[in-house]
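Hello again, I could really use a second opinion on something today. I've been staring at a protein lately and its backbone has me curious. Can you walk me through what the tokens say about the fold? Take your time with it, there's no hurry, and the full record follows here:
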Amino acid sequence: MPLYEELKIFSGNSNPSLASAVAGYLGSPLSALQAFKFSNDNTFVRIHENVRQRDVFLMQSFSVPVNDHVMEMLIMIDAAKRASAGRITAVIPYYGYGRTDKKDQPRVPITARLIADLLTTAGADRVLTMDLHAGQIQGFFNIPVDELTAMPIIVDHFKTLQLKNPVVVAVDIGISKRARDMAEQLEAPLAIIEKRRTGNDDKSELLNVIGEVEGKTAILMDDEVDTGGTMVNAAAALENAGVIGVYATSTHAVLSGGAAERLKNGPVRSYVCTDTIPLPPGKMNGGVKIVSIAPLLGEAILRIHTGTSVGAMFQKQTYA
């Protein structure tokens, strides 16, 4: 039985198409919410339905423009709290600022922790998110956090391709554990790109490929693709190491600047991502394949609402 009264799903302006797909999975329309900016650049939110003692889920990806979408989420949470919502879950498919999760230079912030504090202070009771950049971000919160992974959906896609002699390649050491899990599910070996990042200008120096890749079809894996430079350089390094083809995948397709063109013109045959971040038509090309996480998010929301296990979702289940 539900722990709270009826479930209500609201969407901010960052990814309404994903929110609609999630609502469709649950068999109910999105609840009515208005969010816009006044001429003075102040954000305004109004909830047009009764949420008193309801189980409220507020969906918003922290994608470009990141600061606007973060602020909009905070105001949505505050509006729901002041309207006496029974429970407020912040559904954040893409957690922006996730890369700033530690002090790796003198006198720099830990913005991922700051965002966690802001969400909690605004009144969120729990968070539902997808493939955080670093697992320790869960510990930045003093409220429950459910982190889902898009891996089952991405693995199912690559299984349908029936690639010849595949090898999963982590773009760096940091993503190697997830890459190993993916390799196990695909029954493929694992390789790792060793690299050294220099400065704050999104440039990196690729050093070498760790693992046997010659004569294999490589699946490059990362949690997100931003400028695309790491993926393209890694793909070039793999070609030099003798692979017969390179595919790339990530949960989050940030694709800032000229990333889409960089991927299109590079050695990557196909880039597989999810819809945690909406891709405008200008960034779509024939090599981009989007797999939807709406069923995954919808099932998680249903389980949170009914008080059943979210972790059990990943025990040999398929979402399509």
In short: The chain has a mean pLDDT of 93. The first strand starts at residue 5 and ends at 11. Helices lie at 16-26, 66-82, 111-122, 151-161, 176-186, 229-240, 259-265, 294-306.
